TrEMBL record:
Keyword RNA-binding: no
Boundaries of every Aminopeptidase N-like N-terminal domain copy: 116-194
Cofactors that this protein relies on: Zn(2+)
UniProt cross-references to NCBIfam families, sorted A to Z: pepN_strep_liv
Keyword Transmembrane helix: no
Catalytic activity: Release of an N-terminal amino acid, Xaa-|-Yaa- from a peptide, amide or arylamide. Xaa is preferably Ala, but may be most amino acids including Pro (slow action). When a terminal hydrophobic residue is followed by a prolyl residue, the two may be released as an intact Xaa-Pro dipeptide
All copies of domain Peptidase M1 membrane alanine aminopeptidase, residue ranges: 241-454
PANTHER family with a match to the protein in the record: PROTEASE M1 ZINC METALLOPROTEASE, PUROMYCIN-SENSITIVE AMINOPEPTIDASE-RELATED
Family of the protein in this entry: Belongs to the peptidase M1 family.
One Pfam family it belongs to: Peptidase_M1_N
Source organism of this protein record: Oceanitalea stevensii
Name by which UniProt lists this protein: Aminopeptidase N
Annotated gene: pepN
Amino acid sequence: MLLPVSNLTRTETRRRAEQLTLHALTVELDLRAARDAAVATFPTTTTLRLSSTSTTTWLDFLGPRVHAVVVDGQEQVVRVADGRVAVDGLRTDGESTVVVRGEAAYSRTGEGMHRFVDPVDGETYLYTQYEPADARRVFACTEQPDLKAPSTFVVTAPAEWQVLSNSVAESVVDGEDGSRTWTFAPTPPLSTYITAVVAGPYHHAEGHWSRALADGGTLEVPLGLWCRASLAPYLDAEEFLEVTRQGLDLFHDAFDYPYPWGKYDQVLVPEYNLGAMENPGLVTFTEKYLFRSQATEAQREGRATTILHEMAHMWFGDLATMRWWDDLWLKESFADYMGTYATATATRFTGAWTSFALRRKAWAYRQDQLPTTHPVVADIPDLEAAKQNFDGITYAKGASVLKQLVAFVGPEAFLAGARTYFRRHEYGSTTLPDLLAALEEASGRDLSAWSGQWLETTGPSTLTAELETADGTLTALRVRQDDDGGVLRDHRLVVGCYSSDDDGALVRTHRFVTDVTGPVTELPEAAGIPVPELVLVNDDDLTYAKVRLDERSTATALRAAGTIEESLSRAVLWSALWNATRDGLLPAAAFLDAVVSQLPAEREVGIARDLLAHAAGAVEHYLPVPQRDGARALLAEEAYTQLGRHEAGSGLQLVWARAFADAAARAPEAAGRVRTVLAGDVPGLQLDPELRWSLWQALTAVGAAGPDQLDGELAREDTATTRLEHRAALVGRPDAAVKAEAWASLGLPAPGQYAVLGESPLSNDEVDAVIAGLTQPLHADLLEGYVEPYFALLPQLWAGRSIEIAERLVEGLYPAWVDGQEGQVEDHPVVARTRRWLGEHEDAPAGLRRCLLEQLDDLERVLRARSTAARPAGARGGHV
Ligand SMILES: [Zn+2]
């Protein structure tokens, strides 16, 4: 089989790991010319000391040039193909030294060595991002997680810059040309994907954390928090570092293994493709966590959870690392679980499990019902598959499954297992059995059945409460488990029974802890209690399952879900209603009515934010098309009303304001309200740049603002972020010529033109801004001509763009905006066209097919739900 240029398979990396032992890696990067935009590349030199059982191997390198390959002093003929540099003449009776000298390219896609120029001050910033396999865009290496080496980075850069890596700089030497060379201390053994370099005139704040050690010594950890110089005024270092210290305290005790990486730097970097990356001692974060505009407590909680997720990786992932990407979940599920646990336990954000229940799990439930879902322990044959596995299964489902495991074995046994695992596998590589062995020792339980049920199967369980009653008394209560795909799992969970108090609020009157096994589980202890108004399976959110409500409970929830005191229970209940909406069991209109009637009283900012997002999703996707325009207007009007009713300056007011701006982009009749808000006529509402831009984008989307006004807004504050907003707003005008220009800016040939993909100068963030503006829901009519070009271009898009950009284009431009006729699913034009494409392209790369299959499934799901909702109520079942 001919592999795509940069792919690597599990089979060949396994073979290489058997042949090679790495003793030391040294990487020298010459970044002196980085500030010159005309210079596209930088010199890179790798020196590897290794032992080999074969005379030949290869190193991975995706750079424009390799100048030299030297083995034990002997220069070899340079042979490079498919991102691999051939290496011959290795000793099989001792150590060899391999040197590769070449040129690597600066990146604009966030992959490899990303280069960014700040429009505010013209300064240049660099950072690296490698996972899963982009270290080879920066230096020649063995790009697989199980080949770990003590690594030394040597970086030459402008003398006035700050340069950081995983370890501290051992020496800093000034050159005669205004440069400086930083030589960093050799690291403990590291996988390539977690090595990192950050360079530029970064601003920083310092902190410190220390703890007494068992041997009487003290562990001293210097803390650094870094951002671009122009963002220094917004860096709220105090809270960031406080959460950092709280996390280090908690993990130090919980893991009983001293923080292993010396110092702890955290850097907020521009145009970042992900939330954060756990490079040991040098964690990189998206700048979205540097709040330039107002931030709600929910946003701060989300940031804390990410800080602690990455910190958990310092042990889980960095110290003990998965052997290959099949076991990516080993680190991600753990970090996701521990990040939320630590946030709820050690910081002021004690409601972190509520956000997990409503927001994080929605990601898992969606992903787990796609045709492309996979077991938590996945089969990952190559790197392209690995790249796509950073998904809702690996993170959110895996973490949910661990939460269920903790409910079974108890938190102490769970942490004891983790401690054993770290000690046993420090600086090594691991697979699932290594973790299970440690957990079994600690808990005294056989976990093979648990692993089989939860890690090696797909799809969420579906659990339904069934009640039998007589004369106002519950005579039987049971939990039914659907035989989804033939998998019945064991669940330890809580069933909550609720009834109204004198004020009409739902109060939990009974809480039953039970082990659900098999298709039907009786709860005999519930017999004899008064019939509750609401029975909530998985109250407290211990297990991972779609929860169905009985008919009476559904009616109660739609009327009064928001009156429950405990936020976690509210989140579980709303999650059940949302899943029922997505499954076409609850009409979107009923969900929407419940949100609109109950959300104004919601006190948790995170729940309000997530439910407003679900409500917008219900309107845009799940509601029958004839009802949509009215619902759009209603949602915008309701949000406007509420932002005036909530406490001035509060997070809730801000959440409603953002929801208003979002809804107004699809509700032309709200334009006057938007102008009122923009004019500052809402008491206490602070019009920060983020909010102002979303209001301007709403106006432009409905044709109520033009380029002059957008330019004027940009002139108020001209930064990298506001330029992106300005770009999205400009592209978001309802104008065919604007759409054509935007399409062309992505390097895509115009409809009807010879279909050859062009270049695009846009960065990753700029691509996102263009897609957002281009695909405004109100502009579907203007986009009809792009459906065919989209399908025609798919193979070229996938081959001609880096995977990061290709995925954004394939998913972002998917023409789900075509409404079709009411009740149409199979014959919907885009469904039919996608199916035809898939049929004609069975040999297309698996990653591309996966993207298309997921878009198709989402579209079919909403079409099914719409056609169910359009049927008369009597034709639908009662259970949701
Ligand atoms: Zn992670």
